[in-house]
Amino acid sequence: MAWGKQKEQAPPSTIRQLLPLIITLVILGAVAWVGYQIYLSLGKIQAQARRRMGDNVTFTKDGMRVNVQGIEAESYLDRTQSWVVKAWELGSGSSPNENDEAARRKRNVLTKPKPGESHH
């Protein structure tokens, strides 16, 4: 019975057993190297951006925060309120000269300081 006999195979060599491990380590090493190069590049880009933008930009975990230099909160608020007043006057359909009292009342509503708040 020739079909019942099986050939005895030699056990796999040590190199054949370690070959999948070596391939896996090489692939993981290549991925780690690429990740490290990306990390270094991002650090250089961040340092260059910080150097060019000065202290007006702060990098946080959520992104980046830009500080406006030279504008105080009160002057910014005054400018934005003046635009709101102008838009309100233009939207009312009458010119400020025709209805000065109504325009003055609207302006007082928008620019009236809150209790306990100083306007200066």
Please give a structural write-up.
The chain is built from three helices and two strands; from the N terminus they run H-E-E-H-H. It folds into two domains: 15-66; 73-111. The chain has a two-stranded antiparallel ribbon. It is elongated, with a radius of gyration of 36 Å. With 120 residues, it is mainly alpha-helical. A hairpin with a 2-residue loop joins strand 1 (57-60) and strand 2. The protein has helices spanning 14-53, 73-91, 100-111, and strands at residues 57-60, 63-66.
Give the averaged pLDDT, no decimals: 76
Individual helix count = 3
Query: How large, in whole angstroms, is the Cα Rg?
Result: 36 Å
Largest sheet entry: 2 strands, antiparallel
Query: Helix/strand-derived class?
Result: mainly alpha
Succession of helices and strands: HEEHH
Total tally of structural domains: 2
Q: Reading side by side through the largest sheet, how are the strands ordered? A: 1-2
Strand content: 5-15%
Count of beta strands: 2
Low-confidence stretches: none
Outline, from the CA principal axes? elongated
Topology:
Elements: H1 14-53, E1 57-60, E2 63-66, H2 73-91, H3 100-111
Antiparallel strand pairs: 1-2
Characteristics of this structure?
120 residues, mainly alpha, 2 domains, two-stranded antiparallel sheet, elongated
In short:
This protein has helices at 14-53, 73-91, 100-111; strands at 57-60, 63-66. The chain folds into 2 domains: 15-66; 73-111. It has 120 residues and is mainly α.
